[in-house]
Amino acid sequence: MSSEAVEEFDENGTPLRRRPTQRRSARRVERMLDACAELLDQFGYEALSTTRIADRAGVAIGSVYQFFPDKRAITQALTRRNVELFVTRVGRRFMSEEYAGWWAAIDAIIDEYVDMHRTVPGFRSLHFGDMVDLNMLDAVADNNTVIAGRLRSMLLEEFGLTDSEDLDRAVLVAVEAGDAVLKLAFRRDPNGADDLVREAKELIRGYLSRHLQTGPQTGQTAATPLSADPDPGRAAGSTAPETTR
Fold this sequence. Notes:
By secondary structure, the chain is mainly alpha-helical. The chain contains 9 helices and 4 strands; from the N terminus they run ββαααααααααββ. The strands form 2 sheets. The chain has a two-stranded antiparallel ribbon. Strands 3-4 form a two-stranded antiparallel sheet.
């Protein structure tokens, strides 16, 4: 691998000075990201510096600048790693678990978010980058719009929802609303107040059920209003409609 440092951007707009093409270099970059995560949890973003990251990672400061121009770029790379980990974890659950419908998948998505907040270093300090910069993941779209797009794609693939602008808007609103309540849950309790996590699930299920109508035969979902109870899993004496998978 050439030692020349060339300023470039990856497909997500993250500034990189050199791509870690060798395994040793890739491991060194991972140590930098791990160090960044630990320092964010310990000191916060304002106190973060490339020097501290280099010291914690056990690398020379020059090694940091070979790959990242500043602390924001490192934090951006860490945010992208968290997003990919989140999507991978949700995808793994989609592959291994059977869901009665999209409402059960929503609960699984929230459960993964909460568990990452509790267990993944740096996640509680960054979330999906919005704690530092609303455009951490994309120069144009804000972070929640990027996350909503990823989740929308997964739901489309998993449950055969009918794609539409209404669905785009509904998923984005659900992400924004759920994000606000989950942040409240972690402000109330560092491990996430269970009652508020439940409220977040009910809020999202109730909102989306007014916009997603499950077909009785095809299992497809159209972005049309429901006249039934807004939460299909909570009506007294009723059960959520089964979706053919």
